[in-house]
Amino acid sequence: MFNVKGSLLRFWEKEFDLTLRKNRKGDRFFTPKDVKNIQLIHDLVRRRKFTIEGAKDYIKSGKQAEAKYEMIQSLQRMRNFLLELKANL
User: Fold this and answer.
1) Which helix (H) or strand (E) holds 29?
2) Which distant-in-sequence residues (6+ apart) come within 8 Å of 12 by Cβ?
3) What element of type H or E holds 42?
4) Per-position pLDDT tens, the chain of length 89
5) How far is CA 39 from CA 1, 36, 83, in A?
6) What's the pTM?
């Protein structure tokens, strides 16, 4: 889904104190909330080039970080829709 290696996801899990559910075999189960958190981390670290410490501070800033991220995602979806509409004209 994110085109990253599993080791990077495990690193982010450790660094950002994500608590994922695991079965006896050790397979991780991602809830929708976990996926949303990883999307935010991926966006901050990969797209916006935050450092790990900078991303931690941004996330700790609370709901403002989530609200900003949701707004950015909404605007990106709208932009993609408009570009698709333009291409079909």
Assistant:
1) strand 28-29
2) 18, 38, 41, 45
3) helix 32-42
4) 888 898 998 999 999 988 888 889 988 888 888 888 888 899 889 988 999 999 898 888 876 777 777 888 899 899 999 999 999 98
5) 10, 5, 23
6) 0.69
Residue with tokens 């495990």: 10
Domain range annotation of the chain: 6-88
Distances, alpha carbon 63 to alpha carbons 19, 36, 68, in Å: 19, 13, 8
Using CA atoms, how far apart are residues 36 and 14, in angstroms rounded to an integer? 16
| Residue type, position 53, single letter | E
Contact 4/12 with Cβ under 8 angstroms?
no
What amino acid is encoded at 1 in this protein?
Answer: M
